Amino acid sequence: MINIIGYKKFWLAIAATLVLASIVFVTIWGLKFGIDFTGGSLLELRFTGERPPVSEMASNLASTGIESANIQPVGEDGMILRFKTVDEAKHQEVLKFIKEKFSGLEEQRFESIGPTIGKELRTKAIYSVVIVLITIIVYIAWAFRKVSKPVASWKYGVIAIIALLHDVLIPIGLFAILGKFMGIEINSAFVAAILTILGYSVNDTIVVFDRVRENLIKSGGDYRDFEGIVNKSINETFARSINTTLTTLLALVAVFFWGGETVKYFALALIVGIGLGAYSSIFIASPLLVVFQKLAKR
Amino acid sequence: MSKTINKVKNFLSKTGKEVFTNKRAKIWWSVILVLVIVLLAGVVDYPGYYDKGVDWVKAKTGIGLPHAYNIPFKLGLDLQGGTHLVYEADMSAIPNKERGDALEGVRDVIERRINAFGVAEPVVQTTEAGDSQRVIVELAGIKDVTQAIKMIGETPLLEFKEENNDPPRELTAEEQKGMDEYNKKAKQRADEAIKKLKDPNADFGALVKEYSDDTSTKAVGGDLGFISKDGAYSSLWGEAEKIEVGKTSDLLETEGEINILKLSEERETAKEVKANHILICYKGAERCETETSKEDARKKIEELKIKVNKDNFVQLAKENSTEPNAAQSGGDLGWFIKGAMVQAFEEPAFAMKVGEISDIVETQFGFHLIYKADERAVKEYRVARILIDKQIKTEILPKQDAWKYTGLTGKQLKRAQVEFDPNSNAPQVGLEFNDEGKQLFADITTRNVGKQIAIFLDGGSIVDTDGDGIIAPGEVYAPRVQDAIKDGKAIITGSMNINEAKLMVQRLNAGALPVPINLISQETVGASLGSESVTKSLVAGLIGFLAVIVFMILYYRLPGLLASLALIFYATVVLILFKLFHVTLTLAGIAGFVLSVGMAVDANVLIFERMKEELKLGKPVGSSVNEGVKRAWPSIRDGNVTTLISCLILFWFSTSIIKGFALTLSVGIIASMVFALLVTKTFLNLVAPWIKNTWWFGVTGKKN
Q1: Are A59 and A123 part of one and the same domain?
Q2: B130: which chain A residues are within 8 Å (Cβ-Cβ)?
Q3: Which of A189, A204, B530, B563 could cross-link to B604 by cystine, CB 3.0-4.6 Å?
Q4: Which of A181, A182, A169, A125 is nearest to A269 (CA)?
Q5: What is the ipTM of this complex?
Q6: What percent of chain B has pLDDT over 90?
């Protein structure tokens, strides 16, 4: 049997450090939001000929009146240009202009989202995260309504939420870093990933708690070795937690590497969040259970 | 090794016995049911392979099996290419309570324009977000997005037009001069050609090459093949009749062209007959307008039959025949060939001798007497020609429109509404014009009493007049003006139901109160990027799938293998669900499906881990299976419920592309629960009695 509870301070310290670091990154650098939240235009190009350097593209765009465009080379022969919201006429004008400048250029994708739509999506995204969180708290409270000794049922819920916050804060921190250094944006797909992480990661936590509950019942009301019971429960569910996560991660890793540019970072957010979900259920939720119980005893 | 073989032998011999026990039979039936469902699902998932198989079987054995029911996957815009447009309607000029109808009008106008564009399954929806009223347009697989955006965004144009009876204009002096010169040159060339043809050594074919303007026959010496009296060259046929075989004609000049013909062959193809007839029709016969009863008509024709002879036939026809124009034509039908007349008439006409008068003949038109005036063979002539083109006036003048601009447009229309006829209660459409429109409409209706006024929206008919659901370019909706309307209030009546009237009102109002629309969001994906994405996601899906399978088999051994089998079945069935429920597959949606494959295994993992625990406690395989499933179920349920909650909210929250993710993931999760409970359990139960060594279940050191 692996002694996980024994090293609980170590596990919790790792998690706390990562969460704190994430919060710091987000506060310092902020998040880089995609055009679906801010409004703006995105033009993806492919060059069948030679791909021009970013600076050349930038100066050409500037001469059509598109200042401060964000230009990013993608893959072997692609390029993504991001700039302010433009209407269709301007879009055509810009496209025509750069087509004349650079031969062998093809428009792959164009999105232009007005500021109103961006604002709406932003509001909706916030609402949906809040609603998911509330629904999950309610669900956990309901699922653990019958357990009260030696840890009150609401505490299971609180712990599950702490674990969840850990699961989503770290990916957000990671995207703050990615946004700062690689220009990766937070878009509605990222929000979808966060919501999925919320829904999925709580599974693991519930399974471990379930087992604790079962073992507590088996112990016949003898809670003296609460730590031992929790540790036993973790060990019993250990393989299962790792394996379910592993199979899901295998599928997601395939999407990350081979699924194409559009879903790459969506898959990355899910990989990180779901991986953390397994970590949090084993190394955070259960140790916290013991911590809460000890606090209550005092 | 030999031990394993013994085990295999052992369980093979055992199955024979056990199949017939009640419980085993039930398991076997479940397995067979699962296999049948999966097989059927597979056939619909990949109809191509199945159909090829069916064709092969048919070719080899002659047994014809039905082809698969082919439902294509519905691909999202990001996979097949296309555009997603969101328009905001500017309703500032529209009173509050009319905004809903106005928005419907905008939607309808956009839909009409898109239909003219020919996009498969376009989506045009209205939606409200707060105060803003929007129209969402999705065009999949469209080539020219720019053009579509341009067309959709234009303000609708409603026009009232009157019949155009203006004579075509005269040619300008310059045009006339140009035409005369062209025709003069044509005449000169024709004269030259005919002069050369007069030479006894002249070669007609060479002259065709030199002079003919008929490019399609130039290469074959001007040969038109056999021409018939009623074919494409009937006017030339008349000329060819006058030429001897092997000879050429003179210049044959008409308004538009000059021909020189050469007759190379002639042949007889049929007989034709020239006849007169007397018709007495009666009430109820086709095309008959008299009130005469059938009895009276019969009496009349019988009287005539007695009186009639070769010499008075035409006179009697003029006096008695009910055929229109008989008084002038004397019942002359001219030359006609077989097939031109109804059979009852034709048979006696061709059977009779020239100069005879027939018995009474009855057809759907009434009673006839027929006089056969002549009979001759019909000939076809094989001719070659030199064509010299001339210009005519209509070639130079632009084609005249059938409908003329009146100056009355949607701008002068105040509003349209559905009304009901006070007497018949039939729905009708009421129009009300503003002051300027009142004056214009009064003028137009005054000069067009008894004539039609056509209504056009965006240059096409305002409604679908022939009920085929498409407004074709030539279609026109034109109510007739009954009286001059001076008060600016018109009513369009006619056979329309309430929905048709509503639609017309909506469109009239869309033209009367144009609602400007602004494009506030555009997402366009090129087709090449789309198909690239399809390939990529397929590859990613397959790799993910294989990785999961390899892991499961390595870690869980036999159950892992069974779970992989169940996973393959799972994927097959989920894909069929996507097809059956027309789930739109997007990139994120496919990612959701791949994710669901990873998650689908979760339930199996939970069951296996529980099962292993039971096995470790030394329980027999069979009961471990059941216990494992039973005890894993609460965790499976709880875990999936939370993910489903997230999906539900995602579905509410997001854009169509993310919706695809939420949908595929939910379908996947629900299916995975069903599969874990039914399929994996059934398989485990099936193999449980065969396995005595728990090594197969990943538990070492314990034997049953």
Answers
A1: no
A2: 120
A3: B563
A4: A169
A5: 0.84
A6: 2
